[in-house]
Amino acid sequence: MQTFKGYRRENGKIGIRNHLLILPTVVCANQVCSRIEQQVPNSVAIPHQHGCSQVGSDKERTHKVLVGMGKNPNVGAVLIVSLGCEVINAEEVKAEIETTGKPVVWIDIQTEGGSIKTIQKGIEEAQKLMKLIEDTPVEDVPVSELIVGVKCGGSDFTSGLCSNPALGKAADLILGEGGTIVMGETTEIIGAEHLVAAKAVNQEVKDKLYESIKQFENEIERMGVDMRGGNPSPGNIEGGLSSIEEKSLGCISKAGTAPLEGVVDFADEIPGKGYYFMDSPGNDIECVTGMAAAGVHVVCFTTGRGTPTGNPIIPVIKITGNELTAKRMADNMDVDTSAVLQGKETLDEAGNKIHQFILDVANGEQTKAEILGHAEFSISRIGISL
């Protein structure tokens, strides 16, 4: 049985990183959070543009994502910073994250008396939290505890021929060891959704998958736009992809061959083990954010054209099957599978290579995105601003 070194949380969940998360509840707290982060080494802040002028399901999504980021087992402690008059209730966010057993502190800018005083208080509290978690012991954990997201972005013709199916081989290895695979991007299974649905373990799962597609298509129709204006993107087309169907056929191969256990909504916690689909945008940063908020430990991100996207709390592994991209964007690429297209490597060998790198990252090796400080974070909006 293969294992990795993980951080055991009080609720039994396992983390592969031990972050102190500095969490603004509203856009107005971003600057304060960033200043605290600058003064507390190894902390991570997640500035965002939300938390005010939101109602209904749009507000609920922001709340869910913020709570999910705090609950992710890669986070050891959380410092919440609120303004004091936003629609997101900081006390509720704190209470929900505390159900994990991890330490959570909440400070408020208006209560503290302004930005400078809040930054000073925040630095003090963050340093205390850091001391609480810096000696968190690690233990040997079976691979069955791993939750791995699979994502593609900046795709080209090599994605469907090489990097996605190679990642699918790695996904099967993780699933074979009892782990969990989460695939997102509702927009990028269109035209191939019947192949994903065919793997569903029951009719309920199949129906929910089709409903996710229907809701997206209804929204596109309501807006009166043609999806092809943005997906495939200009870069996808320049890279040799002719249609969303062609892109989708390559996209779905990265999840492997296992049965589809369930379909979850954006940022919802993954309910079990096996292969799950998350109803999420195709937008790179929003999709990865939803996975992080759902409790995913690490995302494997294939790209033909190349993209530097990372995440504040989960490692993002960049995989390419394009030899030119591997060389041109060597700063950003972690795994090069282009040897498959050259006949020098089989898909199984490439999958084994990806699988081993996943385990290396779970054991603490940093991805290129982590080394370079790529910490992109974005919450998808589903409503108007008031």
Automatic annotation (TrEMBL):
Any single Pfam family the record assigns to this protein: GD_AH_second
Lineage: Bacteria, Bacillati, Bacillota, Bacilli, Bacillales
Record-annotated D-galactarate/Altronate dehydratase C-terminal domain positions: 143-383
Gene Ontology process terms (BP): D-galacturonate catabolic process
Domain D-galactarate/Altronate dehydratase second: 6-131
Protein name: UxaA family hydrolase
Gene Ontology molecular-function annotations: hydrolase activity; lyase activity
Alphabetized PANTHER family for the sequence: ALTRONATE DEHYDRATASE, ALTRONATE/GALACTARATE DEHYDRATASE
Family label: Belongs to the UxaA family.
InterPro entries in alphabetical order: GD_AH_C (IPR048332), GD_AH_second (IPR007392), UxaA_altronate/galactarate_dh (IPR052172)
Lyase as UniProt keyword: yes
Organism of origin: Lederbergia citrea
